[in-house]
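User: Teach me something about this protein's shape.
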Amino acid sequence: MNTTKHPGLDAWVEEWESTCSPARVVWCDGSQREFDALCRELVAAGTLVPLDQQTCPGSFLARSDPSDVARVEEQTFICSNSADNAGPTNNWCDPNEMRAKLRHWFRGSMAGRTMYVVPFCMGPIDSPFARIGVQLTDSPYVVVSMRIMTRMGRSVLEALGTDGEFVRCVHSVGAPLTPGEVDVPWPCDPETKCIAHFPESREIWSYGSGYGGNALLGKKCLALRIASVIARDEGWLAEHMLILAVTPPGRPKRYVAAAFPSACGKTNMAMMVPTLPGWRVETVGDDIAWLRFGDDGRLWAVNPESGFFGVAPGTSIATNPVAMATLKSDVIFTNVALTDDLNVWWEGMDSDPPPHLTDWRGHDWTPESHLPAAHPNARFTVAAAQCPSIAPEWEDPNGVPISAILFGGRRATTVPLIVQARSWAHGVFLASTMASERTAAAAGTVGEVRRDPFAMLPFCGYHMGDYFAHWLAVGALGDPARLPALFFVNWFRKGNDGQFLWPGYGENSRALAWALGRVEANAAAVDSPIGYVPTPGSLDLGGLDLADAAVESLLRVDPAEWIAEVQAIKTHYGTFDRLPIELREELHALEQAFAVEQTG
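Assistant: First, the predicted structure itself:
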């Protein structure tokens, strides 16, 4: 095998080579030549289908096994030394038991396959934010995807040096080949999948899946679940947040982070085309943000990824023209439909589907078919540098200074368009209560409210109560005058007719403008029991055909709705045995405020 200047890394690779028994070991250098060679191998294996080189050059379509189409949250574990440290929102398993079980599955799991050694860096390699990982995998699809999503290859090994720390990531699709056995285009273990995180030893072991966050271990596994633990230990924040740059006309550029659960428009906001004249929005990141204090006392953020791994269905010229422009070339699409002229299609791309497609399973499809042509979780993987709205400073090793952080969910009632928190602690309270109503596309009862604090419910690598306390502690470290302002937003409030009151998309720039106006102390607000709400005249609604009654509904804080919300928050807080007293005090203050309002 190859050797490096890092004896610890070499020994670790040798150990897993002995366990997994691959036919060979390849150390990845991250070069374009290597990427192209792997893509040719994947095409020959039937894993990748080349798309039309005139309309989408350098792009491919992959179709996964039907058993391997999304994150397997029920089989995702935090294997902390103590179950208490995993908390009530994570699946926990004793780390020794999990290691024994997974080692049994890993033994011989790469027989007949290549073990790829993938050194990768989350964040710019020269950044103080940067974290290095090394992933062992038997999936060339994972290797080419990791090259897009991370900084990967020889430069990472050079940065690691002789004794640098790295997160140990082991991944196998769990499909060993016997001599002479014919491989399948998408190998995986259809019956057994497991993703285990060992926070204390900074390890990730993933078995059985080749898809998305189950297999691209730098993404949710390292950049959120393990990084959240590192951030807690070191005094910073690893968050499920977009980052964007906003330049109002004649004013300085500002940077905003935002946390939304799925199906709440996070990618659309990251690539927003503002409707306000003269305003400019640029993309720094669409999914993950690492934030830490700079020497100036402000919170600075970096996007640790180098690519976008976005959901394709619903993405269109109408909803996200910037994303569509990003997908013009050099994309790996997974589980979308294929047109007869070797282009891609998915539900929501345009109003009328073609008369014939090959669906994500590889079957003939017509508009009369009863099943969707693209899987609802179909994805695109593309380099962030291709995004037309990418900010020139998106790879600045020092990050960007954050002026405001938005938290939000999908609520048909109760939550106004935008609310400013009164303080850092009040903002943490609001974020800890974040919720979204289930849509028809999600499992569960439509309209049911699902709490997703900070949009981190599936991604926090330790006890969520301790996570709330960590946010409070970070706020206590900073100068209140330099901390980002915190806001609560809701683009999804509906009227009595069941229709959305707010147009959303680029019009969200109007709410963003009010938030930045508050940061700069020049936007008016009403002090409501839940925080500062815009006065109707403080929102720039020029050119919008919104009735006064609709604006009033968008900004209304209804006491009856909020009294019910207080009771729901009490139930939610009952989940956490380590809830910080500051949040109980915020909840009590909210309850008292509405009691006074009712009696007054």
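Now, about its shape. The mean pLDDT is 95. The chain is about 30% helix and 20% strand. If you'd like, I can walk through any region in more detail.
User: That's plenty for now, thanks!
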